Amino acid sequence: MPRRWPLAAGLAAGVALDALLGDPRRGHPVAAFGRAAAALEARDYADSRVRGAAHAAACLLAAAAPAVVLHRGTRGRPVPRAAATALAVWAVTGARSLHHEAERARIPLHRHDLASARAVLPSLCGRDPSQLDETEIARAVIESVAENTSDAVVAPLVWGVAAGLPGLAAYRAVNTLDAMVGYRSPRYARFGWAAARADDVVNWAPARLTGLVAAACAPAVGGRPGEAWRVMRRDGARHPSPNAGRCEAAFAGALGVRLGGTNVYDGETEHRPSLGQGREPEPGDIRRAVRLCRAVTIAATAGAAVVAYLGSR
Q1: How far apart are CA 140 and CA 92, in angstroms?
Q2: Could you tell me the pTM of the whole model?
Q3: Dihedral sign computed on CA atoms, order 271, 146, 156, 310
Q4: What is the pLDDT of residues 37-83, one digit of tens each?
Q5: Which residues, 6 or more positions from 145, have their beta carbon under 8 angstroms from its beta carbon?
Q6: Which DSSP symbol is given to 182?
């Protein structure tokens, strides 16, 4: 009979390591991957979808191949498999860092220090903070927490359950590439097209699962699951991203706030439809969003561990 506990234990232990220790301070494998991808881009960039797809494929192969070797090398060795999974999950998840950065933005907002809050915002999202007021910064932070609850927590767990160590490494590679080149800017509109579409695909199911779990966890922040579910169903598809809107709409419904609006990215203005029909977000809602993220993290980790234990073969 196959041993069913190593994957389940590794997933839970990896999330616990992230909660206790945060991101590794030195030698972070995701940072190393990013540097390698940037170095390759300097050599192979061209304003072409084909070249961009080749770049994404090469980076994905470089990340996934060692994970496949490690996965095979720990087959039939439950303790090494559990340890390797725990370390991989620790490396590819980022809930503690997300909470820390959100809190770094909330504290100056609470003190009405807009300059300091604007200085923190680029660590959470790519929009131009220079003209944002207190309400808009709070909205930006909450939207980032909502989207990254999927990207940094739920999606890695989903792919860890689905494909073990290779799934964890491949997901983080795709998501990191999207963050690097998956923009509609003149430089990346074609070169980053493949990375952006791959990210849309791998996050389709996790984003919707994040929305469902966030709705279920709404009572943790004083919300109602039914209302959060209705907002996600009604407003989630209005977002220009096929995935982020589900997470942000569910958080808006759970928190009782209204998200969406005008954002500026690299000088380009985007007007996004409203998500939710509540009041405008306030600095205190950032802490509530972090609390909801924690609740989703706990629920998703427990669910992933159960599914991994019951479904391993």
Answers
A1: 23
A2: 0.94
A3: negative
A4: 999 999 999 999 999 999 999 999 999 999 999 999 999 999 999 99
A5: 98, 102, 124, 251, 286, 289, 290, 293
A6: -
